[in-house]
Amino acid sequence: MIEALLRRLSGWPLGLLHRAGDVAGWLAYALSPSYRRRFLDNARQAGFSAAEVRPAVGAAGRLLFEAPLLWMRPHDASILPRLQWSGAERIDAAHAQGKGIVFLTPHLGCFEVTAQAYAERYGPRYGPVTVLYRPARKRWLRPLVAQSRNRPHLVAVPATLAGVRQMIRALRRGEAVGLLPDQVPPEGLGVWAPFFGKPAYTMTLAARLIQQTGAVPLLVWGERREAGRGWTLHIVSFDEPLPVDPGAQAESAAAVNRAMEALIRRRPQQYLWGYHRYKSPPARPPGAGA
Predict the structure, then answer these.
(1) Mean pLDDT for the chain?
(2) With 0-12 CB in 10 A as exposed, 13-18 as middle and 19+ as buried, what is 43?
(3) Cα–Cα distances in Å, from 239 out to 15, 28, 51, 141, 199?
(4) β-pair type (216-224, 198-203)
(5) Alpha carbon distance 128, 59 (integer Å)
(6) What residues contact residue 175 under an 8 Å CB cut-off, 6+ apart?
(7) pTM over 0.90
(8) CB distance 84 to 200 below 8 Å
(9) CA atoms of 43 and 207, how far apart (whole Å)
(10) Most buried pick, 126, 176, 198, 209, via CB within 10 A?
(11) How far is the CA of 10 from the CAs of 3, 25, 64, 222, 233, in angstroms?
């Protein structure tokens, strides 16, 4: 039933999906005091007023409703006509060096579209992009999510030791990988580092992938354009050098957090402020060591 509903939604125009998402976002905000409080607290911690982040309430719903279009569209239906690119020359420059790329994406805009866009435009020439994901909490939803995220030239791997090894091998082949470094990792797989001035449990994997493989780090996010016109992919350089010492994990994590903060400040109206960024880390599942 759920799959049938998602397939039906995937046929809606993007503008209509976004309007439905606006309604869903505001309903969630109105009906859940805990979500509303976390949303406002996180925005205030970052220095933004409620008025400044008001559009992000609907943006959270838009993220939910545009997912069926991205997950369920036929594999031969191109996403590229819906996209504009800003900074794509940075991808070309990295590949010209023969190096792998680590794409770092915060919970900003449409992060689902970034990997699909790279896969379609660059995958045929440079190989697939491997992305890290956390399996859905609902057991019945896991196969659907995993199947939907695996597309031509796009490989989704779970956040396990085996998944991390796949990412390392991909980088050493000169391919690209992608992950969301502002996602709270399981206990033991991160360090506490400042995020908008408040300690947040932060993954160490992003920095370690860069340090261990010599890959080029790039920041990417998909800005949602109005009226259902699609997305603009922003490719931004990661200019802050990471510590050479692999033991300086807290310093590296803080540097990654600063990069995420800089992107979020560009468009706070599309950040997922309701995400529980400052929560304690979840228990480490078996086989998740890295």
Answers:
(1) 92
(2) buried
(3) 35, 37, 31, 38, 23
(4) unpaired
(5) 29
(6) 100, 101, 126, 127, 128, 129, 130
(7) yes
(8) no
(9) 26
(10) 176
(11) 10, 18, 12, 19, 21
**Structure token pair of residue 92:** 């070309």
Q: What is the distance between the alpha carbons of residues 47 and 41, in angstroms, rounded to a whole number?
A: 10
Distance CA 60, CA 181 (A): 19
The percent of residues above 90 in pLDDT, for the chain, comes to 79
How large is the angle between the packed helices 205-213 and 161-172, nearest 10 degrees? 30
Distance of alpha carbon 181 from alpha carbon 37, whole angstroms: 23
Residue 228 CB burial class (10 angstroms; 0-12, 13-18, ≥19): middle
Please tell me whether residue 171 adopts helix, strand or coil conformation: helix
- Pairing between strand 176-179 and 129-133? parallel
**Beta-bridge mates of residue 237:** 218
Residue 170's pLDDT band, with cuts at 50, 70 and 90, is very high
CA distance linking residue 250 with residue 202, whole number of Å: 9
Query: How far apart are the C-alpha atoms of 250 and 254, rounded to whole Å?
Result: 6
Tokens 């000169």 sit on residue: 174
The token duo for 270 is 């599309």
Amino acid at 87: G
Note whether 116 and 222 are within 8 A (CB). Answer: no
Residue type, 30: A
Concatenated DSSP letters for 15-70? HHHHHHHHHHHHHHHHH-HHHHHHHHHHHHHTT--HHHHTHHHHHHHHHHHHHHHH
Centroid of chain to Cα 182:
8
pLDDT of residue 246: 75
pLDDT tens digits, one per residue of 124-165 = 999 999 998 876 666 666 666 666 677 899 999 988 889 999
